Amino acid sequence: QVQLVESGGGLVQAGGSLRLSCAASGSISSLNDMGWYRQTPGKQRELVAGITSGGTRNYADPVKGRFFISRNNAKSTMYLQMNSLKPEDTAVYYCNARASVSYVAKEYDYWGQGTQVTVST
C-alpha cells in the first residue's frame, strides 16, 4: 500500500502564495507519474499539474505561469508552488500518484485525502 498525505493548504489573499506538499510512504516499489488535482462542489475533479518520474511537467491552462510542480524522488515528495493566487483557485487539492508496491507488478492509482486552499478577495 501507498499512503499520500497532503499539507500546506490554507487561507490566503488574492495575489498571495502557498506551497503544497505531498509525502508518499509505504512499501513503494516504484513511484511513477504524480499530479495535483483540485475539486470544488458540483464540479468534477480536474488536473492542475502533473509530473513524470523523469521530471516532465504538464499544467492546466488556468495555472500556467503561476503554479510550479516539482518532486524530490529521494524524499518521495511532490510539491506545488502556487503563486499569484486567484479566488477561482479555491478548491480542495488532491495528490495523486501512480505507484507499485513491493512484490506486486501491477501499478495502481493512489489518492491523498486533500487539503483545502481558499483564496479570499
Shape: elongated
Q: How many whole angstroms does the radius of gyration measure?
A: 14 Å
Taking all residues together, what is the mean pLDDT?
Answer: 95
The helix tally amounts to: 0
Biggest pleated sheet:
7 strands, mixed
H/E element order: EEEEEEEEEEE
Please give the share of residues in helix: under 10%
Question: In what range is the share of β-strand residues?
Answer: over 45%
Give start-end ranges of low-pLDDT stretches. none
> What's the total count of β strands?
11
End-to-end distance, in Å? 40 Å
The assigned structural class equals mainly beta
Break the fold down into its secondary structure elements and pairings.
Layout: E1 2-7, E2 10-13, E3 18-26, E4 28-39, E5 46-51, E6 57-59, E7 67-72, E8 77-82, E9 91-101, E10 108-111, E11 115-120
Parallel strand pairs: 2-11
Antiparallel strand pairs: 1-3, 3-8, 4-5, 4-9, 5-6, 7-8, 9-10, 9-11
Task: Give a short overview.
The protein is mainly β. Helices cover 0% and strands 60% of the residues.
Please give a structural write-up.
It is a single chain. Strands 2, 4, 5, 6, 9, 10 and 11 form a 7-stranded mixed sheet that branches. The chain is elongated, with a radius of gyration of 14 Å. By secondary structure, the chain is mainly β. The protein is built from no helices and 11 strands. The N and C termini lie far apart (40 Å).
